[in-house]
Fold:
Amino acid sequence: MDFSHTACLGGGVIGASWAALFLASGRSVTLYDPAPGAERAVRDYIATAWPTLTELGLTTEGRPDAITFAQSAAEAVAGAGFVQENVPERLPIKQAIFAEIEPALDPAAIVASSASGLTLGQMQGGWRDPARFVLGHPFNPPHLIPLVEVMGNERTAPEAVTGAEEFYRAVGKVTIRLNKEKNGHVANRLQAALWREAISLVVEGVASVEDVDKAVWAGPGLRWAAMGPTMLFNLGAGAGGLRAFCDHFSDTFNGWWDDLGQVQLTPEVAETLIRGVNDEARGDTLAVLSARRDALILAMQKATAGLRQDG
Structure:
């Protein structure tokens, strides 16, 4: 498959980040976004992201100016081997875009959707033949966070799924395969489960928003950046591995699970969290906090480069 030329549909934060990554890998990009000022915003985003991509060693073959802007979605996908769709998460908008681009696609092109809240089956309704259409859900920002969740189903050509995985890996991503549809996919559901308990601990008065956040980044979050929870527990019981861990801690975990909080994100709960996160920010702007986040992620990415066997 020829993935030397790509297309991005939508130039918001996700689409611009994808475009920066594709450009860094030495590919050309055509982008479509009808919003006023989209071209300027995307070019500015790429310019801002480029030093980070360079520090990660991802720009050895790329040029930030190898991007063009199309006047329509159909024009954007013409001649592209890989298309990343990032339009707003409203099913009618996505299905209309798919109906527009399908006649203009190269027969061998793969189209991947960044959708986080819609399922592949729902989005396939916009296609006459969805064989070359896959889910390719990233974590934000895609040029910095490696994960992409990839999925096809019985209406998807198997080579489209494997081709998407090969493409993502070629641009520096880590892929996981979803074997069935689930709202929120995998990683967002894991985030949702942890956040629900974090909120519960705050609402119950066990700890402040800042201290619950600190408990994650200074504790298990540091380990999770190295390995997933099941493998870490496998290492947690010495030579006995996960079997010994389960034998020893089954009653403990069953008791914790029975006691986990059941909360709803009501306006009152949201206000509690907002007050807490404002206290935690200590007056720093969102731009300052975002820059600090990206610098920490970049440092971790650089520190662990070359140490993993998978990815």
Q: What stands out?
A: The chain has a mean pLDDT of 94. The chain has 13 helices and eight strands. The two ends are 21 Å apart (CA to CA). The CA atoms of residues 11 and 33 lie 5 Å apart.
